[in-house]
Amino acid sequence: MKKKKHIIIFRASGPLKNTLLTKELEKLNYKIINLPILNIKKIYNKEIKIKANDIVVTTSFNSIFYLSTLTENRKFFLYTLGKAASILAKKLGFKNIIECSGDSGNILLHFISKNKITDGRNIIYVGAKEISFNLPKKLSCLGYNVKRYKVYNSEAIKEFSSNFVRLVKNKNVAWIVLLSSKGAKTFHANAKNVFNKEDFSNISFACMSSNVAKNLDQKYFKIFYPKKPNINFIKKIILKYEKKYGT
Length: 247
Hints:
The chain is about 35% helix and about 25% strand. By secondary structure, it is α/β, with parallel strands linked by helices.
């Protein structure tokens, strides 16, 4: 019997596990391993006071969780990015959730400005200390009244696990999944220290978006990403590729 190869999902390691993608990929003929590429640490502990007509904006799974620990209010309008964040928000009791598909705050910027949703109300942005797309600043420049809360920090890992290095060296990895720009940048920085071009010759990279993919060396890696950020693309592209070329 042919030995199953692995799909490695690199993700931020926070207080809760985001299992949505893992469950989807487990339906394929691979072994799925989740490994940390960023370590999440909470850095804000005071209550966030949210008025009834305030709009709260988040751009990550971890933002939703930390928000739930910093306020008892669940009735305000909450804007999120991605299905996993939306599902978590519902589980945590938030009532008025507006889900936008994508992986970038730019999606929310266009949605908010296009629909003029604030109608004079305040916007509260809850997120990481460092953000690749400064959504609160962009919204402020458009005239919105924005208050930003930096509730967690993401720290890049210093090195890969010995198990991951061994799997790659032994040609037991078929796909590597990268979900964020900072994660991809961290992966690339660490990979240069341990691997050579030959090590990745049989590995394909599935990225959440072009913004994620551009942090990898396009000549060095075999990279796939959707035209628009889409988590469902990852499963679809793996299925399509394997049907064409075999496992």
